[in-house]
Amino acid sequence: MKEIQGENDLKRLVNGSDMVALLCYRGDWCPFCKRQLKQLSKMMPDLSSKNAHFFAITADSVEKNSTLIKKLKLPFDIISDPRVQLHKTYNSPINTENPKAKSYPSGAFLQPAFFLFKNGNLMYEWKQTSKITNLGGAIFRISTKEIVDKISEYAS
């Protein structure tokens, strides 16, 4: 799946395997997001051994995601969520105030968040809302180590 068209697509994604990890990021324009994606790509061997299927998710287009995967040499898929279905279904934070939000079809982009599903059930979530103290969601994110630790915790 490259793009979420609605709630059924999202449900199919999270029910697609025993454990599904979703990392939301703001967009290909965010240097902090790209750095986190690169860090996570280095952890893929550890995550694969946990039988977890990892996906990044953003409101960016399928084309932008394909370009970013190639540019950063990411070993995981990026799912496009232009209608911010993740927000509608799991209350993932969005940003409508940032001027960049106007360039998205829904007038919003996803804020940094992490969701972990086991057998289709939401087991863990970390969400960040846009504030001045976190530079609009740019800093103070869940760390790569915390993501790996949470996946390890629920894999057992």
Structure description:
This protein is of the alpha/beta class and 156 residues long. It has a single domain, classed as Glutaredoxin (3-Layer(aba) Sandwich), CATH 3.40.30.10. Helix content is 35%, strand content 22%. It is built from 6 helices and 7 strands; from the N terminus they run H-E-H-H-E-H-E-H-E-E-E-E-H. It has helices at 7-14, 31-42, 44-48, 62-72, 85-90, 144-155; strands spanning 19-24, 52-58, 77-80, 94-95, 109-110, 113-118, 121-127. The strands form 2 sheets. A 5-stranded mixed beta sheet has the order 3-2-1-6-7. It has a two-stranded antiparallel sheet with strand order 4-5. It is globular and about 40 Å long. It starts with 6 loop residues before the first helix and ends with a helix. The relative contact order is 0.21. The model has no long low-confidence stretch (mean pLDDT 91).
Q: CATH homologous superfamily name?
A: Glutaredoxin
Query: First CA to last CA: what distance?
Result: 27 Å
Radius of gyration: 14 Å
Query: Which fold name is given in CATH as the topology?
Result: Glutaredoxin
Query: What structural class do the secondary elements suggest?
Result: alpha/beta
User: Which term fits the overall shape?
Assistant: globular
| Biggest sheet: strand arrangement | 3-2-1-6-7
- The helix content, as a percent range, equals 25-40%
CATH class: Alpha Beta
Compute the average pLDDT: 91
**Oligomeric form:** single chain
Tell me what the CATH architecture is.
3-Layer(aba) Sandwich
Order of helices and strands: HEHHEHEHEEEEH
How does the major sheet shape up? Answer: 5 strands, mixed
